[in-house]
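Lay summary

Proteins are chains of building blocks that fold into shapes. Our project writes down both the chain and a compact code for its shape. Here are two examples, one after the other.
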Amino acid sequence: MDANDGFRELDRQECLRLLATVPVGRIVYTRHALPAVLPFNFCLDHDGAVLVRTSASSELVRAVDGALVAFEADAATHSGWSVVVMGAAAVVTDLAEHTRMLLTGPRSWAPAPQEVFLRIDPELLTGRELIGGRSLYGVRLPY
């Protein structure tokens, strides 16, 4: 990032801390060879993985199980932040893990008869913060 663009890079711990403060993010994946984006409520697991709960029969599950995806969440007005998690997505198949996530994982906002948990392991975690509409040099940005 340019030192004068008004953004500050976030380290891994800052990214995880900010992700834990918002309820909704977006999964970015490939659908029929094109980019697709879907919003989901989520939570972070104890190791920083993103957990999403969705219908076992959803097209998303078929599209992302075993695939590399991105997950983005943000909070923005005239200042704010954006965090992107990139990593492999997988349906949680371990019964003990699934049972644990039923108790601690995200609640679906659109419950389905059969639900699964998708787990996105954070292989690459990046973030940036817009600092109050100002550059690092204190110059007011034009918005």
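And here is the second example, written the same way.
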Amino acid sequence: MSANRAPLAFVYDRCASRSQRPLDMRLIGCHAYADRKGWVLAGRWLDLGDAALGSARPQLGELLAAMRAAAPGREVVCLVHNWSRLAHDVQDRIAMQQRIAQAGGYAATTFDESDQGVD
């Protein structure tokens, strides 16, 4: 797969705690996973502190705008360490996944989970 045809991975995470170590470890995992899959990293977006707790999520909004711009010519994926990086509550997570789908992409985790092709 050539680099210009490889999917673009938009790495997302959120962290409300003061400790950055778990966040750093999750990001390293996302980067390694994307590399193993042959995906091109589009960047990473992080909602921190209070922004990580609500549904507004400013950095996720920025990620979705970038994903929407890239989607017409490329496969785009929002890569998270695990589903709880989107939301702990299942209904909230599904809403976030729907926003990702509306931006033209799909969500995937470093545990080989994906909602690609799920309506």
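What can we say about the second shape? The chain has a mean pLDDT of 94.
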